[in-house]
Amino acid sequence: MSVRGKPIVPATPRVISPSPTPSEKDAAARESYFGPTTRSAARRRLTTPQLVEEDLEDESPDLRRARTRSRSPIDTRKVGRLTSAKPTAKPVANGHTPIASAPLTNGHGLEKSATTKSNGHLLPPTPSIYTGWSWRDFSRSPSPLGLIPIHRHWRTFVHKHEVPRKALHVSIGFFVVWLYLSGTQTLSVCPYLMAALVPIAAVDLARHHYAPFNRFYVKVFGALMRESEFDGYNGVIFYLLGAWTVLYCFPKDVGVMGTLLLSWCDTAASTFGRLYGRFTPRLRRGKSLAGSLAAFLVGVGTAAWFWGWLVPTMGPYPGDEHFMFKGTLSLPSTLAEAVGLTSAQATISGGTALGIMSLWSGFVASASELVDIFGWDDNLTIPVLSGLGIWGFLKIFN
Predict the structure, then answer these.
(1) pLDDT higher at 84 or 123
(2) Concatenated DSSP letters for 63-131?
């Protein structure tokens, strides 16, 4: 056939082959030969999931089944068991639907400001403005890493084991013993504690209002600080306040014991808790059985050493006549009469009384280190609660 003398050649038909299924691909891969392939390319070919199109036309537009919660950090909408598929938010002018998201934080409980400039790292810079005080500032939460320069350079010595901080903590206990041996009265020490507390608290308050001063402060005293105190208040403030309270409000022996338990039991609990706490049950967040047991044993030894050796060997000193514990313990008269005991039978002395007093001191030291009262700093709660526990016990059985 021809048109005007020219033969007509039919057009080549276009054949479209359907895409092979995953099973056909695997069969072809087994039957055909491919060139050398790297392990990473082969791993990607085997582990790459095949795209599966879902036909959602049969699903009701008003009622759909519950789906698993999305892992996307952007979409935070909660899908219930039976929810409507209709959008609840109106699209804005650009055609997109606004999505509510959680406020961004800088990792320390402070919201990231929209005007904060990025420093090129994963952690946004800390706002330099003072965000206000809250009860959470008392909390002794686990210390982060990266805020104080010396903690980055001395991660084990300063950050992990807190050797300079613990050395200062323990040395105050020996300083209290030296004051006792020099015959100093507890009430005469309180004005000096308050004179140190007021300026230290003022400086700590000022550094939270001025970021340059705060950076200078942590460079000078960073070895004695926890990194959680970069945005919070310094533990020295609560240490001085706790020592002042127990020395001012309680008799001499109770005040001295409360300060010694703060200095030595708290350090022992922190040291052994960090070393062996992972091998023992956790009593509460940040507190383990190993740390509480260490505080108990050190408290027992401190009380036995103070009342059993230091006081009778080195004393008496002025003010010792007002000690609450003088080597004897007795049941209350009402309780003794109820069980039919005489005054002599209801009284114990010597090593038995000292042993009971030492065990009780270790118990109140461990309990005060373990308990959490509104998240307050343990430098304040340990001496106050220990003093209250020892004073109350002696009020009943002395």
Answers:
(1) 123
(2) -B---PPP--SS--PPP-SSB--S--S---TTS------PPPB-SSS-BPPTTPPP-SSSSPPPPSS--
Closest CA to 261 of 364, 347, 192: 364
The answer to whether the beta carbons of residues 330 and 343 sit under 8 Å apart is: yes
Number of residues that this document lists for the chain: 398
Instruction: Report d(CA 161, CA 143) in Å as an integer.
Output: 12
Number of Cβ within a 10 Å radius of residue 305: 14
| Nearest in space to 227 (alpha carbons), one of 238, 218, 237 | 218
Q: What is the pLDDT of residue 365?
A: 95
Contacts 24+ apart (CB under 8 A), 48-54: 50/22
CB atoms within 10 A of CB 113: 13
Q: Please enumerate in sequence order all residues whose Cβ is within 8 A of that of 181, keeping only pairs 6 or more positions apart, or say none.
A: 314, 317
C-alpha distances in angstroms, 162 versus 150, 183, 269, 305? 12, 33, 13, 27
CA dist., res. 373 & res. 395, Å (int): 24
CA distances from 205 to 126, 159, 240, 264, 378 (A): 17, 24, 16, 28, 20
Residues 6+ apart with CB under 8 A from 187: 247, 248
How many other CB atoms are found less than 10 A from the CB of residue 303? 25
- Whether the pLDDT of residue 227 is over 50: the answer is yes
**Are 151 and 145 spatial neighbours (Cβ–Cβ below 8 Å)?**
yes
Distances (CA, A) of 240 to 213, 292, 368: 23, 23, 17
Strand partners, 348: 329
Residues 6+ apart with CB under 8 A from 140: 226, 228, 235, 286, 375, 377, 378
Q: Has residue 258 got a pLDDT over 70?
A: yes
Question: What is the model's pLDDT at position 62?
Answer: 47
Q: What are 311-369's pLDDT values in tens digits?
A: 999 878 888 888 999 999 999 888 888 888 888 888 999 999 999 999 999 999 999 99
Half-sphere exposure of 301 (CA within 13 A, CB side): 9
